[in-house]
Amino acid sequence: MPNASAVLASSSSSIAMHMQDTQSNIATYERHCRIVATIGPASNPLELIHAGATCFRLNFSHGSHAEHAARIQMIRQAEEASGRFVPMIADLQGPKIRVGTFEGEGIQLRYGQEVTLEVSKEPGRDGLIRLPHPEILSALQVGDELKLDDGLMALTIISKESDVRAVARVDCGGYLTQKKGVNVPMRQLPISAMTEKDKKDLAFALEQGVEIVALSFVQRPEDVAEARALVQGRALILSKIEKPLAMDSIDEIVALSDMVMVARGDLGVELPTEQVPAAQRKIVRACRAAGKPVIIATQMLQTMVDSPVPTRAEASDVATAVYMGADAVMLSAESAVGRHPATAVATMDRIIRAVEADEFYWDELDAAHGEWIGTPAHALCASASDIAEVLEARAIFAFTASGTTAVAASRERPRTPLYALTPHKSVARQLTMVWGVTPILSPNINETAEFRSSDDMLAWAERLAQNTLNYRAGEHVVMLAGTPFGVAGSTNTLKIVTLAG
């Protein structure tokens, strides 16, 4: 078998041409933690990328398909102009449970008052709340709590006459207007996580080439399995953890998901406020242990919807997520409809950089590492991280067709720069959401005469290290790959390369 240097010397001019193309696509990420920015009327994608945004979220709770298509086109144009890989998340709305209408504008709920809940599409009135969702009352039991209007009001079921009628006590009152949201914190509802609207939105998003699909209202592992059957490998599945009941099977949900989001909006409505931080930590630890990317979201810099500066508490909230080892943090209204979208992204960028420059940052990451995963791929990735640190290697190169090798390498939170070499642009985009990974488009093996074996690819990677990344002779690079080359899930090779002169 010829050595890598001999292959490199004999390669034709097409290798150099591909190297030039690759050089224009490399944008080293100076932050390990990434930023998701929700796109909306206030957003300029290119400005947000320059401010530090890594990924854009499309909120399908709002906007038509035509509006989303226009935003997707803007994002693709901004991606090309920036020279970076920019993934998109299609955030599906999920089932929205709401009260019905009222004869007037609304009704006043008073503390201690008893009100009737009734399944009907007719308007409600004082003391009577209509619910157009029969699934709710059929699932409720005496003692169950209902939260109304994002948790501003609360009821407790005190009697149940039938599956279509119940009586509740007002524990927290207020003025309830029509079609406000209803949350049922501790009861699993017989409702699919995907509505007919979600299925239409999903089909549209996949046609548009969106890389990640966010699944709302996840209650159980079966919800993720249902979505995966519909997606059929055309995008990654991101499970939003916003129901307390999902915490009961968090490990199973994480295992079935490609990514996970700590969706603190509805989670904070359905859980007591003081329990949300512990739930966030539990979800992040479950994801880090399983090697699944995790995003922390909702109200991270909420003040910046109007203000050009965040509160000190918000800055600490973002910093805490970074110290915990989250792969990404997310902006919602701040970047979608706020007055200072680019400033909000830039502020989050500065907070992340300050944390990652802290001398205790790596201690925090190591403390939350989790137990070893007993697979050959994860064993090699753990070894690659250790070897790279001992040798003071310049980089870890992970050859990956599906992205799994790079994700496994990222799980170890290596201090050495981690590059994912993939021939697929969609995978490169997805990998920008993974902690510490810089994706690079590589040749697709067997596509040209010069790239037909692992030696060809290793030679190409050596040339990349020296000519594009400007590493010097005598320096080390650690390479992770699988044989046969280009086959997903085949990581079985670790190689230490000392760059030749």
Helix content: 25-40%
Give the end-to-end Cα distance, rounded to a whole number of Å: 22 Å
The gyration radius over C-alpha positions equals 25 Å
**Number of DSSP E strands:** 21
Secondary structure class reads alpha/beta
Name the CATH class of the largest domain.
Alpha Beta
**Domain unit count:** 3
Report the CATH architecture of the largest domain.
Alpha-Beta Barrel
Average pLDDT, to the nearest integer? 90
Q: Name the CATH superfamily classification of the largest domain.
A: Phosphoenolpyruvate-binding domains
Helical segment count = 18
Shape, principal axes of CA atoms: elongated
Query: Which band does the percent of strand residues land in?
Result: 15-25%
Strand order of the largest sheet: 1-2-3-12-13-14-15-16
Report the CATH topology name of the largest domain. Answer: TIM Barrel
Largest sheet: 8 strands, parallel, barrel
Q: Flag low-confidence runs.
A: 1-25
Write structural notes for this entry.
The structure is a single chain. This protein is an alpha/beta fold and 501 residues long. The chain folds into three domains: 151 residues, 3-Layer(aba) Sandwich (Pyruvate Kinase, Chain: A, domain 1), CATH 3.40.1380; 227 residues, TIM Barrel (Alpha-Beta Barrel); 78 residues, Beta Barrel (M1 Pyruvate Kinase, Domain 3), CATH 2.40.33.10. 38% of the residues lie in helices and 22% in strands. The chain is built from 18 helices and 21 strands. The strands form four sheets. An eight-stranded parallel β-barrel has the order 1-2-3-12-13-14-15-16, surrounded by eight helices. It has a six-stranded mixed beta sheet with strand order 6-5-9-8-7-11. Helix 7 packs parallel to helix 8 and helix 11 crosses helix 13. The chain is elongated, with a radius of gyration of 25 Å.
